[in-house]
Design goal:
- By secondary structure, the protein is of the alpha+beta class.
- The protein has one domain: 2-Layer Sandwich (Alpha-Beta Plaits).
- It is 27% helix and 16% strand.
- A 3-stranded mixed β-sheet has the order 6-1-7. Strands 2-3 form a two-stranded antiparallel ribbon.
- Strand 4 and strand 5 form a beta hairpin.
- Helix 7 crosses helix 8.
């Protein structure tokens, strides 16, 4: 079996969520928490040294998927053509053991009710079988995504397998390579602490933003991949701009 996988170029991602909408549309998913891929948006740093982070999280179809071994009904398996990790919904009993052990929280559920069956990204295997790429990859307007044999992706884009704030890749060996954000560079050097104080004097908005960051009052100031309920999932993956 040749393992196929994804590229996520974080430096190109603008958080537009076109890929997420395309995924929902292609798979006929209703509005709500059935999201085969999720876009997480959160802030880090303290004004004026801030960064808006975007993370693209589908199922990464790991080379050593922990979800397979933990499923009590054998409902999760790795198919042998592309290396996709799939769920047999006829066998799934909704125990959520797969969700508990997956470091990326890939399995999703339509509600919090007990026994609701798991769903997740299936690598668009229906498209792969007819020679097409996953719909998320083709829909990205900024070309932040790519797909193909994992070895080919490594040869083209390099072998960066970890990304800031994500779980260690050695846990499950996800089938993905990353291109991280470019490092921020100061064109004009300055003292951040002094700048905050001066801007706080002249601008109540800047002062309020600094206070919120220092007191951790910003709603989404870190990446949370695992959620206790669907309300938390929806809050963490919503688009505030529309």
């Amino acid at each position: 079996m040749e393992q196929y996988g994804f590229l996520f170029d974080q430096s190109r991602c603008s958080g537009c969520r076109t890929c997420a909408v395309a995924c929902k549309t292609w798979n006929g998913l209703p509005p709500g928490p059935l999201k085969y891929l999720k876009i997480y948006e959160y802030e880090s740093g303290i004004f004026p040294d801030i960064l808006l982070n975007f993370h693209w999280i589908p199922c990464f179809h790991c080379e050593s998927p922990s979800c397979i071994d933990v499923c009590p009904r054998g409902a999760i398996f790795k198919e042998d053509k592309f290396g996709a990790v799939l769920i047999d919904n006829d066998k799934c009993i909704g125990c959520r053991e797969c969700y508990q052990i997956c470091p990326y929280g890939a399995p999703v559920f339509e509600s919090d009710k007990s026994g609701v069956k798991a769903h997740k990204c299936d690598m668009c295997i229906d498209r792969l079988n007819v020679g097409l790429k996953p719909i998320c990859v083709l829909s990205c307007p900024n070309r932040a995504l790519d797909f193909g044999p994992l070895k080919s992706l490594v040869n083209i884009y390099g072998n960066v397998r970890d990304l800031k704030d994500l779980p260690d890749s050695q846990i499950t060996h996800p089938a993905i390579v990353f291109k991280p954000h470019y490092e921020k560079k100061l064109l004009v050097t300055y003292n951040s602490e002094k700048a905050r104080k001066l801007m706080g004097i002249s601008s109540p908005i800047a002062k309020a933003a600094t206070y919120q960051a220092e007191k951790e009052l910003i709603g989404r100031s870190r990446l949370i991949l695992k959620h206790n309920n669907v309300a938390s999932l929806m809050y963490s993956t919503r688009n505030d701009e529309g």
